[in-house]
Amino acid sequence: MNGTLAVPAGVPPELVFDFDIYADPRVIDDVQGSYAAAIEDAPDIFYTPRNGGHWMVRRCEAIAEIVKDYEHFSAREMQIPRVPNPPFFIPLSLDPPANVPYRQAMMPKFSPKAIREFEPRIREWAVQIIEEVADSGECDFIRDVSSRFPVSVFMELMGIPIPRLRECRQIANEFFVARTPAEFETVSAKIFELLASLMGLRRENPGDDLISHFINADVDGRKLTDDEILAMGFVLFLGGMDTVTNLTGFSFQYLAQDAALQKRLASDPGLIPSFVDEGLRSFGVINTPRLVVKDCERFGVRFTSGDMVLCLLSVSGRDDRVNVDPQRFDIDRERGAHLTFSTGPHLCIGHILARTEIRVLTEEWLKRIPSFSATPGVRHGFRIGTVTAIESLPLRWPRGG
Predict the structure, then answer these.
(1) What is the pLDDT of residues 295-306, one digit of tens each?
(2) Are 14 and 43 in contact (CB under 8 A)?
(3) In whole angstroms, what is the distance from residue 379 CA to residue 386 CA?
(4) pTM of the model
(5) Which domains does the chain have, with CATH numbers?
(6) Distances in Å between the alpha carbon of 33 and those of 17, 75, 283, 383?
(7) Where are the beta strands (DSSP E) in 63-166?
(8) 3-state SS assignment for residue 308
(9) Taking the CA atoms of the chain, what radius of gyration do you get in angstroms?
(10) Distance (Å, whole) CA 70 – CA 401
(11) Within 13 Å, how many C-alpha atoms sit on residue 378's CB side?
């Protein structure tokens, strides 16, 4: 790769490591494994001159400290490279204490109790979608299952009409591949238009969905404004459209290669939560940016106001300082350490829902398709950046399971 890109004068040469978060050629089909291997010889915190120049943080300890230190590392900008008028997400773009009232407004719909009560409906969606492909002996797991299942669940939660599923998924994909200010502006407008129409619908016909909940919620003794509801819906839309699809897709990509593990899980479904935990550790999909808003020094690195920092949540579980033999997928290990859902004031508010969805989908899949494999000779494709995605996963199995 080109090593002549500009590096700020204050960055020590020994901390520079050339890496392109959107298209590094060292990242291959084993996305998280090859990503971790590609930066194995890099400093724990390093500077890449690519994409406008930014820092990257790969160790769990440092990531946890940075995402908790909102005084120096703000979440108010989350685009690399930086763009004018960056998208504003509530509560994601707000640092504490400003984000707290909004998280409190969201929590009733994402609490352990709420998700337990919603689980039967989650299971109904899983059964319906899996049974549509079970008798065929083959499917593209991403297209036919893992993009439809969590997205259908989320759309029901949000109150979005299910016939708009493919449209919503396409809009989310456009957002995650956007690079220029014009591209961000165009796709953001599509999302806001969708949410505004939904908000108008729910004002006339309230339901038991998130938008109706936000319309009626109290935040610090007042009702949310339309702009606040749109900004809250925006971040939930992006998370609901993409995150669980990719977490499940990468986990099943691995499971398709391990017949012995399939047999264990099918014969003892009590092991499936451990499979989910190990999948979350091994196959994270989010990398979270931060904007340095105050000069500081952390872990021997001097950060300057205006610097962008990318915390590699997606490979945090591959850190050999917190997990033994981290590249090995092992459901029998003690629960592996990872930051797949971040930590601290920006812990993913949907993490309980995500775990439940992956567990339920795996349970229902293995009831009907206990033995399956990846279709040979087909590349699955992937996307990297701030959100890692698997693009396809053709599977096959004996007809009738």
Answers:
(1) 999 999 999 999
(2) yes
(3) 22
(4) 0.92
(5) 13-396 (1.10.630.10)
(6) 18, 27, 9, 14
(7) 73-74, 138-140
(8) strand
(9) 21
(10) 50
(11) 14
